[in-house]
Amino acid sequence: MSAVSGTLYGIFSTTGTIATASASTDKVYSCKSATFKCDVDLPDVSTKESAGWAEHLSGIKSASVDFSGVWDEAGSATALTAAEILALIIAGNTMRKFAFVPAALGTTIPGWKFMGSFKGMQLGADMEVGCTFSGSAVASGAVVLFDA
């Protein structure tokens, strides 16, 4: 078995188009988890003639990446911090390129990219533990296999 470590994957975001190359400076900083979700709506079109079997159409597709991490007050000059993501949302959140890929860009492990926007951001501040953040990025348009 050739299992892939989740530690390899990260979420990246940069300005530009889907063809814009991702760099290590585009990585969401201090992430602990990132989950890529790709879905298709399957509207039911079953009839009495379906003989008891479900039938459906291929409907609207969607994709998103949910992420979370530990707030790092020092931030990073070389990555996208939680505060910078929050500032993007507050400022109007222009369309950006997102990639869910291995952090070591250029490996043969597959990744995916899409144009989209940050959808939301949550900050957690429980007593006597590190502050946390979580958020999501939602695709607007097609998801494609990552190539740069």
Question: How would you describe the overall organization of this protein?
Answer:
By secondary structure, the protein is mainly β. It is built from one helix and seven strands, in the order E-E-E-H-E-E-E-E. It has one helix spanning 82-91, and strands spanning 9-14, 31-40, 61-70, 96-102, 112-124, 132-139, 144-145. Strands 1, 2, 3, 4, 5, 6 and 7 form a seven-stranded antiparallel β-sheet that branches. It is globular and about 65 Å long. The longest helix is centred in the middle third of the chain and has 10 residues, at 82-91.
Report a brief summary of the structure:
With 148 residues, the protein is mostly beta strands. It has one helix and seven strands; from the N terminus they run E-E-E-H-E-E-E-E. It has one helix at residues 82-91, and strands spanning 9-14, 31-40, 61-70, 96-102, 112-124, 132-139, 144-145.
Number of helices: 1
CATH topology: Factor Xa Inhibitor
How far apart lie the N and C ends?
28 Å
Name of the level-1 CATH class: Few Secondary Structures
Beta content: 35-45%
The residue-averaged pLDDT reads 89
Q: For the CA atoms, what is the radius of gyration? A: 18 Å
Give the tally of structural domains: 1
- Global geometry: globular
Helix-strand makeup class: mainly beta
